[in-house]
Amino acid sequence: MTAQPRSLIQSTVDFDRPGLQVGTLNVPYSHDRSAYGRIPIPVAVLNGSPGPTVLLTGGNHGDEFEGPLALMKLLQRLPNMSIRGRLIVIPALNFPAFLQGKRTSPIDGLNLNRIFPGNRNGSVSEMIAHYADTELFPIADIVVDLHAGGASFNHLPMVLAALPADVRRHDEYIRLIDAFGAPHTMLMDLLGEDRTYGAAVERHGKLFVCGEFGGFGTCNVQGLSIVEHGLARLLHAAGLTDAPEVPHSSGTRLVRVSGAKHYLFAPAHGVFEPMFQLGDRVQAGQPAGRLFDPHAPWQPPQLLRFESEGMVVCIRSYTGVEPGDCIALLASEANWA
What we know:
Elements: E1 10-11, E2 19-28, E3 38-47, E4 49-57, H1 66-77, E5 84-90, H2 95-100, H3 124-136, E6 142-147, E7 153-155, E8 158-161, H4 170-180, E9 184-187, H5 197-203, E10 207-212, H6 221-237, E11 253-256, E12 263-265, E13 270-274, E14 281-282, E15 287-292, E16 302-305, E17 310-316, E18 320-321, E19 326-333
Parallel strand pairs: 4-5, 4-6, 6-10, 8-9, 9-11
Antiparallel strand pairs: 1-2, 2-3, 3-5, 7-17, 8-10, 11-19, 12-19, 13-15, 13-18, 14-17, 15-16, 17-19
């Protein structure tokens, strides 16, 4: 009996062939207008002399643009690049969402970053997650996934980091983070969420670098520059390239999200008036803003307060909130220990 292929997604590039290739990852998509259709996700691979494999992806969420643009600009330079190792570049992994500028897929409504390890025989998003988990992560040594706050958030430009489970690789990992050189590096707490792209990479035992570089569903000029320069320095630190002609990093400041106390959630439906700005340093008990009831505007607003001290690293874009909406995220000074 013929063995079942690991994924239904077919690639037009051979990840082992020397040199530069560009092509697509073809996701089966049979629907009313195209019975035998497929969704072609652009991909490029550059194979040089022996060395590590680095996977670069953007567009995990389709309304986050700094990563895809930085990777598209990198693709313009690939024909003239000589590397040691292998570089795989997918500017927009969640391609249907990216084309629509949406966080979730317009096809199946799923958030790609909350469905790993995916499903071989599932919906389009589930198949993409499954392909990454079974075909891409196993062949990579270092994985970089580039994010931003998207339409609903604005985020201070920063790397999100988590030390690998293997303590023997801590120094190697910290060296990559320092080389990227974002202004801040945040040790994130997703409150137990383990369905993410990053959690899947870590289950494979690979080094994972992520980042948030803007928001509001636009391209943050500063964030794009940080990504471009950071990637150039990281590829050099990983051993793929010679020293890049980009500015040296001025260093990164380490901060940490420590549990639910660093999140500000809306307790009720309403219209929120913030009393803080992105980058502000706040204290526990400090007023965060007023929540007005649009159905009873004559009622006094509810005063929301920060539960903990910290720096505001992420703020909600939308003024209207529902119970459970995250309004702000804080982080406090930290070290690697």
